[in-house]
């Protein structure tokens, strides 16, 4: 919408003119503009009582100048007289010297004696013509002010939308300068509050074609222009020549001429001290007036909030990530003759940690302890508990490597913690020891604490369920713990998984459990698969079954006997783990 | 001129490489690829002219039922190891910004984006590959922590397009430019245009696109005004009911279905789910060709597994009746039926 649209706005309520002199000025914005020459000549007077036209015309908001066929002014209404004192009755209108009357500008508007006038010429009968002259100064000013205000709020709305989302701090900084151009500046420079003596800056420069170009850099804090320093402690330096000089000296204003530039600096409010200072510059032709500076401050408030939030968010995410990383399962240790495969998908995707855990520790005799389990609950608390469990096992496996005895030790340790804290958690788990055999197979000794029994994929393609039961770990002092020994020939795989797999809800109505039968079927024909591919397959079929519903934590640990014929592992060493 | 046999080209090595994939011989596959790299073939060519075409062939063999799912999985896993080995051998130095590469949520075809990731890495970008089926929340929180020059998202199945759109929006809210790729956006990327997101047909094109910041920022307008008719939202809401009624209809009309065992029933339900999901995706992007292309693909898969194409026609017909208040969906179903009729006519002749 342009200013012209607002000015030509027709109320559409049939108000054409207002005879009341007292109200006349108030209606000035409502006069509809008719295209010239479209009106028929005024109808002749008819019927008594004849109105006194001169009296009526006197109260018109528009001034009237009636000229004869020769262009000589014949009649002049009082309003016209006041607006155009140069025009006199009996003289040629063209001789009045008012340029806007001789060659009417587009839209019929022109400035005259500090007023904004709108004129339209209407042909009358007998070659005569009438100029209608209206003073539109106020409505134009009002419309312009309205549009400017509207543009300002639209700009701030866009800024709010762009900066309202949590962004990475660098993204937020780049977005701030990009948004400032071209509305606020031709060049915008954001200097962040220095950290350890160095200040990072971002700059957006207006490009003629499209999006502004953004670049960035680092300055030593001592080299910052004085005006920026002031901005960084919250002061708002005034537009002075030295401000321009400083900006030019810093090399921040490419394409702008130092003598013809207007610069402002505003602080961007932070939590305590400003988060940074924003320098805006544009040609002096667009000097920063009061309204511009108000807009700049409003922008700075939003930008400061966005920068502060971004840093806060990033710092918190960093802390959370570090803590999460310590709670994530560690990939199993490499053991000769064994290929591991794992999959891990926590219930809360954004959190990336959960109550399932797995891992392995190498034993001095060449074998390894391995385990997979599930603690009661989900989320952060459950994850913290898995961390405690894993640390316990890390320490305990050094003193005890017999699976059932190790699990008992763990049970005692957990119970002790529970007693000490007055509250506790429990876990289900399978814990085993793998020992390579001479023939390339492996022997697994496993003990179970209330967890789902392991599955074994035989080389003939058969899938066996290992009979392994036992009680929960961390509940009673001397739990019944199951024990079993399984031999894996080369190429055979043992699979541990958490109940997130079998209890995944999905299917036709979305409420059916995936179940052991579907898992067994999905494993059919998979006996030749490498262990990592097998683990990933289970993760995939489970997630496909979920059909994007909520799910419990999912963990899979596959252990494959690679056999004696496996080539030297040097190739594998060259292959980094998939991220 | 004769080329020394030891050097060879990726194309020459392909049959041997496929043989290694078929026998799940990880070492042989890695040796073949590294042999090419060591003989001076650029790593990018090994990835794009050996691993990529072999993977296309693996997909074809699965679709034609020549290979089992397990075989396909194993082969894909080995290809991934090969990609990792080739990348490690080339060991490029990162000199440019960070690019995050990820599969859409629910999307498991990780090898193509992995190839894109490695090509970008070979061209000097610092690449983070987040892997298969990345939840949007995970991706967004990653972007909050690590500033990325761009995100490359892969989508192999058009039925994930609505998810893809949400994921693209999430990245946009983080003010990070997005490039998408994969067959899910159509052979010519037309559904990427519909969603208003930059699209690259292959890895080199993706590399060119991320290198051009202005092209990245130049986002085509989103063209989803048709969603105002609520057909997509209603279809999603009625998904379970539609599958249920379609299954009931099959049971009533096809005698064999009543005797299906649990496994057959599961796979039928899963196929019906795909039909509804692809129909919903077609409604989402308002393009009937999405659905017809899917019907063509599905009948190919089913026929190779002994399920007659007529069964698909029955279901489409049934859905058209159930969805009579959904003019766009009904139109797309009619398109699918017309294709099936045409195929039936062709095979009868």
Describe it.
The complex is a heterodimer of chains A (579) and B (349). Chain A has helices spanning 3-7, 53-58, 78-83, 99-102, 137-163, 169-180, 226-232, 241-249, 290-327, 379-396, 403-421, 499-502, 515-523, 531-546, 570-573, and strands at residues 63-67, 73-76, 109-112, 115-123, 129-135, 187-192, 198-205, 213-220, 261-268, 276-283, 338-345, 356-362, 368-375, 427-436, 442-449, 455-457, 463-465, 482-488, 493-497, 505-506, 512-513, 554-561. In chain A, a hairpin with a 5-residue loop joins strand 20 (505-506) and strand 21 (512-513). Chain A is elongated, with a radius of gyration of 42 Å. Chain A is α+β, with helices and mostly antiparallel strands. In chain A, 32% of the residues lie in helices and 24% in strands. Chain B has three domains: 1-89, Orthogonal Bundle (Methyltransferase, Methionine Synthase (B12-binding Domains), Chain A, domain 1), CATH 1.10.1240; 92-223, Cobalamin-binding domain (Rossmann fold, 3-Layer(aba) Sandwich); 227-348, Orthogonal Bundle (Globin-like). The model of chain B is unreliable at 1-6 (pLDDT under 50). Chain B has a five-stranded parallel sheet with strand order 2-1-3-4-5, sandwiched between helices. Helix content of chain B is 65%, strand content 7%. Chain B has 349 residues and is an alpha/beta fold. The chains are: A alpha+beta (579), B alpha/beta (349). Chains A and B meet through helix 6, helix 9, helix 13 and helix 14 of A and helix 2, helix 4, strand 2, helix 6 and helix 12 of B. Chain A: Residues 1-13 have a biased composition (Basic and acidic residues). Chain A: Residues 1-47 are annotated as: Disordered. Chain A: Residues 33-47 have a biased composition (Pro residues). Chain A: This is Serine phosphatase RsbU, regulator of sigma subunit.
